[in-house]
Amino acid sequence: MMKSFTIFVVLVSRGYSIQFPAKSIQTSSTQVGRRGACSWALGMAGGSLMKGSPARAEKLYELGPLVLRTEDDPSINPTVLEPSALAIDPSVSLPAVTYRVFMKLSMDGKPVGVINFELFGKVAPKTVENFVSLCRGDGGRSYAGSSVFRVIPGLNIGFGDVGGGGDRCVKAGTCISAKGGPIRVENFDLLHTVSGLVSMARGLDGTIDSRFFVTIPEDARWADGRYSAFGRVSQTDDSMAVLSYLGGLETTGTKNSPKQAVTISECGVL
Q1: Contact 103, 114 (CB under 8 A)
Q2: By three-state DSSP, how is residue 66 classified?
Q3: pTM above the 0.85 mark?
Q4: Which of 185, 142, 165, 178 is nearest to 72 (CA)?
Q5: Contact in structure between 61 and 12 (CB atoms under 8 Å)
């Protein structure tokens, strides 16, 4: 069966986007498979390759070794920046701890455990201030009651969805920081070279809010220059064991959301 349609395609891979002008094309519905549609369109529509265009919703993106599809996610190939000359490698020497905070987690109303965090306020003072303020619940904005919104086994776990929109809060305008709306990324000075590192999720507009993620592997260098690390899960108690448990939860959908609701039931400064 022959069909006539107009296409405009945007592909994103490693900072590049391929755009095609709108063009009417005659084709059979069986002529193009899902995997071959993009390469076919490039040849038929006369696409051009451009660098630097931001990723857009409903596109494939790379997250470490994985390729996932999402509607709107802070991890969709944000611009990669070179680490500064002052980059800190925590596998060589950990920064000084300026704050310690805790989060008690529950799943379907039942206690899961406690994760303690050690924060590096001299590395990213504004980022740490935002995080600590949300742990204290200043101004009525608190991590308490927010969700664990993503679990990617072997890679990272996403926490702190205070706005309630998950990945979609950037698009919906519901992202919340300690100051209200999103704030700018502070720096990318801390390298992702140890397990349990805490980094802020990053919106496509270069901002951060309440959402953060904890890396699982020691080598997460794919996050360098993309995400601002500012702390680490405590290595001297059961915190990493709780993180490991969360990493094994069954997930659902393209966004890897836990099937069972996991929330931060209580949090504060130690």
Answers
A1: yes
A2: strand
A3: no
A4: 165
A5: yes
